[in-house]
Write a structure and sequence with these properties.
Length: about 130
Amino acid sequence: MDRVLENPNHTPDKDDKIKERAVSEMLFRRLLLLVALVFCVVFAVLVLPLLIANPDVIAAAAGGFVNPFAAGYSTDVILCWVILAIWVLFERQRYRIRGGWLALLLGVVPGVAVGFALYLLMRQRQLKGSGIV
């Protein structure tokens, strides 16, 4: 990109596109990690103290359905996890993506945001290593 600033008539070449893709992939990975970490912190601050004080996991899960708004969001999260599970199982067969079980487990605790981010990171690395992407 520095060449563009030096020469306004410069046209992007293959090296520029490779550098741009590398930066966007790095930004993609960092943003996924950031979102997963933010969720883990929020989970640790909001949920863990209550679970430690009252370790009734069933009551904690039922708490997501205390009113129609909470029930809507909880149903959305549950179905997002189901969609992630379908995707993990499909890509395990189609592209031989390994380790999806870990993403599904982390999708339950601490949550789908962490499991989904982890799966995208694992998927990207494995597809890139296989030459598919």
